[in-house]
């Protein structure tokens, strides 16, 4: 087949059209690539626009990826770190707990439960608007009545002497999407250890950072960071022996990962009354009940005067701006008509809200969390120029027509008392619907008689099974013989005994035996048992000498000495008659020989007789 030819002009046009189509396609591809590149830029490539009060209503409604870091941390934490669900611990558990934190904690005093009682009071709340974890040890924030001195949180805790604390910081430490929580944890842990050091007798429970709303005023606050910080808090508690209250699980939508609908105010950060009510139900059903470790008696506890208004003037998370949150709530007996959650400029006026009483009730006035009361059922509130980021809560009060209440216990509201915790029950008036809550005192342990285990007496509660041990005075039982030294003639038996605890004692058994005398052949006496000499053998008798009478000297009268040169006459001799004289002792003769003569007359006697012969 022959291909037809085109005229020259038409072929030139055809070529031009092909070139133009190619250029157009290239331009389209380039534009598409440019759009894709621009749309794919990350937050780190361009600065995040700072939300303002004026742009709050049109804040980003981006869909958050459901965070799971905190959930994984909770699931893998050591047993006992994350508080599990249990029975309702009752209102008394809340009342004996000190709540510490930022503006969300301060708002616990602005809301009341269905009985009309505020969730917390000045006596058990230290909530500081715009405060972060790094200021725990340094910011003097709490006052006490009768004193102008300000105290840090650790100092205030030591003065209030609580049984436990639930502490929640972190919202004011947020900014951006960084998941590095090391700096946050370091400062938080320093604060917690300071509290622990100042009052070591309380249990420390760390509450999770609450979730943000996807319509938050400051879009620089992200759930990615909240989730990472909460995961780090779980690990911190696990490593330091604190307890973790995973309250985020009751405040967060598990599908979107953001706060549940109507759980925050218009700024997307501060919790609404609905959220606070859910939070305290969670606190009561995830209680940590232990023995009271505080030294008794507690002594004097000063009366708190609260945290001064506007203590911190800067807003670290930039949600305050020119507008602050305003919330309207109603007590039992009525409802509200109008917008109950608004953002109002400082000095500006909110849209009107009307309090509508139920049948059988009348309106009893408005009260503001900042002070002041209003009598008109319809109110257009003017926001104070010095309002802080915590905003203002207006509460409409109602009272029933005059009648005598007929309270009936509400089903499924009774919390049984346990050994350690008080119970409670709610009662509702059948006429006006007013609800009250009454406490049921704790039962106390019912200890059994105990069983001895070594030097410990172990008691078991018949009601809950808890045990306690007491050291008892040990009574020794010396039943084991360590050594036995038999009795001797002079020493008693010595027995060393030992108790099962290792202690030893010495006692005497058989008394000393005494010697057993035995006469020997030589006449000596020895003990037949021990061989000791009791009596020596008698000595051989010696011969006895006859006593000899000593010679007696003649008795001569004294003569005067002759006179000098005078002759002395010689007297005539006078015969001397022999006289007997007593015998003079003679030294003992030696037994070598017998000095007697054959006729038996001793030589000495003969000599003595000779001595008595007269002398010439």
UniProtKB/TrEMBL annotation:
The record, for InterPro entries, names: Bacterial_rp_domain, InlB-like_B-rpt, SGNH_hydro, SGNH_hydro_sf
Question: What segment(s) does the record annotate as region Disordered?
Answer: 42-66, 539-616
Q: Which SUPFAM superfamilies match?
A: SGNH hydrolase (SSF52266)
Q: Bacterial repeat domain: from which residue to which, for each copy? A: 325-401
- Output compositional bias ranges, type Low complexity: 51-65
Q: Superkingdom of this entry's organism?
A: Bacteria
| Protein name per its UniProtKB record | SGNH hydrolase-type esterase domain-containing protein
